[in-house]
Design goal:
five-stranded parallel β-sheet; 6 helices; single chain; 12% strand
């Protein structure tokens, strides 16, 4: 059976992604920190006959991500799809007044989480059939929420383009074939509802 792991899937887009992938035949692994959201999402998935597993994990904590993937590897011998869904603002502050701690929190939420989860998932992805990585990004929301100038937004967009290139390279590494990535193999004509 194909397996998919969705980070930050205790509600919203992540929860809906888990549902859609489950309906497409994937066994889904859901990670997140919101226990009330977990109960709602898992109940919804189970009511639809979707085989789902939950692991509590703060995606911004390197230690928790590594521990969680060690537990996942005890139960699963491969992953076919990683969906890095964690991200967002965690609040709003203008750059001119932004505290360093807030900036680090935003970077941890949007970049560290992607890096930690992708790195931890690669050994399992390498064992998957035609593995893929999907990174959801929220570039417009982040740019709008920080009070950035047009020039600053353009710089930020270039960073997101670099993240997209990294996604392609990591997917190629996971497949261990060095071929260019075309779409998301294995998902077929799957339409996500957002």
């Amino acid at each position: 059976m194909k397996t998919a792991l969705i980070t930050g899937a205790t509600g919203g887009i992540g929860g809906k992604t888990a549902e859609v992938l489950g309906q497409a035949g994937y066994e889904v692994i859901v990670t997140g920190i919101d226990e009330a959201g977990r109960d709602t999402v898992m109940s919804n998935l189970e009511s639809k006959g979707i085989k789902a597993h939950f692991y509590k994990c703060d995606a911004t904590s390197e230690e928790q991500v590594n521990e969680t993937f060690a537990k996942i590897a005890e139960k699963f011998d491969h992953l076919d799809l990683l969906v890095n869904n964690v991200g967002g603002l965690g609040g709003r502050q203008r750059v001119s007044e932004m505290e360093t701690g807030f900036m680090r929190k935003v970077m941890a939420l949007n970049f560290d989480s992607l890096f930690f989860n992708t790195r931890a998932a690669l050994p399992l992805l390498k064992k998957g059939t035609n593995p893929s990585i999907i990174n959801f990004s929220r570039k417009k929301r982040i740019a709008a929420g920080c009070g950035l100038s047009v020039e600053q937004v353009n710089k930020l967009l270039k960073q997101f383009e670099a993240m997209q290139k990294m996604t392609k390279q990591l997917t190629s590494m996971a497949r261990n074939k060095g071929k260019k990535r075309r779409g998301f193999p294995g998902l077929g004509n799957l339409k996500l509802p957002f």
